[in-house]
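User: Please predict the structure of the protein below. I'd like the answer in structure-token form so I can feed it into my own downstream comparison script.

Assistant: Understood. Taking the following sequence of 123 residues as input:
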Amino acid sequence: MTLGAFSISLAVKDINASKTFYETLGFTVFAGQLENNYLIMKNGNSLVGLFQGMFENNILTFNPGWDENANNLDTFDDVRTIQQHLKSKDIKLETEADEATSGPASFVVLDPDGNIVMIDQHV
């Protein structure tokens, strides 16, 4: 099973302070809008999303169908296929993708320690 590009989405208190911190670590702005309180920062293949006031906890995010540059992949495991696999293994889903659809969709699971894992397909 291939989950696609990985990033961590951080719930930050001060997006400007977080932006400066990650820039000091060598990250640059890849996407997002500072005025809308979110940025995607990139350093090589590493992606860190900074989100102020959008959610309470940090989220591990996987994007089926994308590489780390948000380029579409020719082949990938669809989010609904990944979801069906997890359900077959008795993994409880917090939210589900509509399996009657195709294209963009997402679902959320919690890991054994309660960390949010989002599988978020954009293609």
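That's the full token string. The mean pLDDT is 97.
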